[in-house]
Amino acid sequence: MRIVIVDDSGLRATVLEDGLREAGYDDIHVVPPHGAWVAKLERMAPDVVLMDLGSPSRDTLEEMLAVSRALARPIAMFVDQSDETMIGAAIDAGVSAYVVDGLRKERVKPVLDLAIRRFRAFASMQAELNEARTALAERKTIDRAKAILMESRNLSEADAYSLLRSTAMNQSRRIIEVAEALITASDLLGGKS
Asked: Where is the ANTAR domain (predicted)?
């Protein structure tokens, strides 16, 4: 597992690195948050990012948001002090674990485990949400195609769906593909739906 520590204070990075090595991790890299460090992180393709930010500024939090979007990896953040705004920004940025005043090497492994588990749980929920959105969009498309068939061929809703389904089976296509083709053809022919 490749772990990147984002830190610009050598002493604090050493605490994190010692905790990781004692937990059995050895693919560890320290990146100072200066210059094009987000691009450098992308190139390194870490599995987990630990950020020791001390007292992060608003600019640092915005950069963290960029890291979270670019990497889509578990991120654990260690800070010395915090407030409600910073916590909210960290959560919005996708931070999996936010630890205030808890930088001790014996805490690094549990925080790392927590960050990974929370990231996986969030990723799973995100995938389910995306599937639900896709299913809803497909259902709307199929409903629109059924409405076109019901009006143009004077069919019941069940018969319109049955016609879409049998056409999809005969053409070895998905029902959504047939529905989209029907809607496109109807639009080209000046249909109402």
From this structure: 122-183
Burial state string for 56-80 with b = 16 or more CB within 10 A and e = fewer than 16:
beeebbebbbebbeebebbbbbbbe
How would you write the pLDDT of the chain (193 residues) with one tens digit per residue? 999 998 877 778 888 999 999 999 999 999 888 788 888 888 898 999 988 877 767 777 677 767 777 778 898 888 887 778 778 877 777 788 888 876 788 888 998 999 999 999 988 999 999 999 999 999 999 999 999 999 999 999 999 999 999 999 999 999 999 999 999 999 998 866 5
Query: CA 36, CA 110: separation in Å to the nearest integer?
Result: 30
8 and 70 co-located in one domain: yes
Which residues have CB under 8 Å from 72's CB, separation 6+? 94, 123
- On whether both 135 and 66 belong to a single domain, the answer is no
Domain match, 146 and 114 both:
no
The number of distinct structural domains making up the chain is: 2
Q: Are residues 39 and 133 in the same domain?
A: no
The answer on 158 and 70 residing in a single domain is: no
Q: Distance between CA 103 and CA 51 in Å, rounded?
A: 11
Range of the domain at 152: 128-190
